[in-house]
Amino acid sequence: MAFGAAAGAACAVPGLVRAAERPPGGSLADLAKAKGVRFGSAVGAGKPGSLTGTLDDPGYRQVLIDECGVLVPENELKWYVLRPDAETFAFERADRIAAFAKAHDIALRGHTLLWHHPKWFPAWLSNYDFGSGPAGKAKAQAMLTAHIATVIKHYPQIDSWDVVNETIDPKDGAIRRTVFSDAMGPEATLDVAFQTARAFAPKARLVYNDYMGWEAGNEAHRTGVLKLLEGFRKRGTPVDALGVQSHLGTQDPAASAILGQPQEKAWRAFLDEVAGMGYDLLITEFDVNDQNLPGDVAGRDAAGAALAKAYLDLMLDYRQTKEVLAWGMVDKYSWLQGFTPRKDGLPKRATLYDDAYKPKPMREAVAAAFRAAPVRA
Ligand code: 9MR
Fold first, then answer.
1. What is the topology classification, in CATH, of domain 29-372?
2. Which residue, of 24, 91, 346, 363, has the greatest Cβ tally within 10 A?
3. What does pLDDT average to over the chain?
4. Residue from 76, 166, 327, 332 to probe ligand 1 pocket by mutation (most atoms less than 8 Å from CB)
């Protein structure tokens, strides 16, 4: 969305304040769009009944309006939020985000139809007894397809879906076990998810999303994801893209210089294989964890920006990279504040904007990466 247009919108919408500072040179959405890329962010619906929280914060709303071409509900489409029980769909929280996006002419993408990891299943589902044999299989399949069909039909505007999220175990590259895979078989569970998504959203981009990274230690995870993607192709499962989450960390000494490091070769080999199978690439959850850097703010911001630029340059070099999503746009609302806190207790500086809604060097790094990126269709 253009800054000019956003300025008009800001005046027209009561309760909205302007972002503290508008970077010159166009919004990130516009800079990305010029190269055939869509830029946006995850956002939370805020706390029910409270005026605090992301979507309730006028300053944050304005950053999203100013910068984003697409929004993703951070948690609101997950089974544990959406499905209090086997019969009910609680769409209210995700609907808030959908309404906000619509009001500001911002696209919506979906995360996620099946987080195929037992840890993130609601308890009632983890304990669900489908029964055994063909009848159990049919019951499990009926529940999964009904969920996916209902959610997709509720949000026909969603044109890009993380259909399956994080099902590869990083330890051994195997598909994780859940009540669905126990009843239906692991591959069949994932295939049914994608086939159902295709049937009800024939034009949407269907994505397998995971956090395998470029750093050493991710080898088994990457191998498992490649095997999964190969299997999808062999079986004709309708999957369009790999979502590369991209939760980066500056704790790795090599992190600020990904280019030229030995890991770069392995990472490019992975991306080449994914692209070679005909998949598009999406950066779905970009942020930078500065957990182990010295406290100095300028130093942390410089390291985060350098890593962001090097990483995005590499990823955008692939014409297959079609969307870039930040996992939150303002530091104080980043999930990383509650995850592995810094030893000195200082807040992390993981996103593109500071807590006063001012753009940080990382915002400029992302803008520079879009400016430098080759155009794609
Ligand atoms: O940012 C999300 C956080 O608010 C939730 O508590 C957490 C568990 O649902 O999920 C976080 O988002 C995750 C995403 O859904 C999948 N990839 C990893 C993300 C960060 O943990």
1. TIM Barrel (3.20.20)
2. 363
3. 91
4. 327
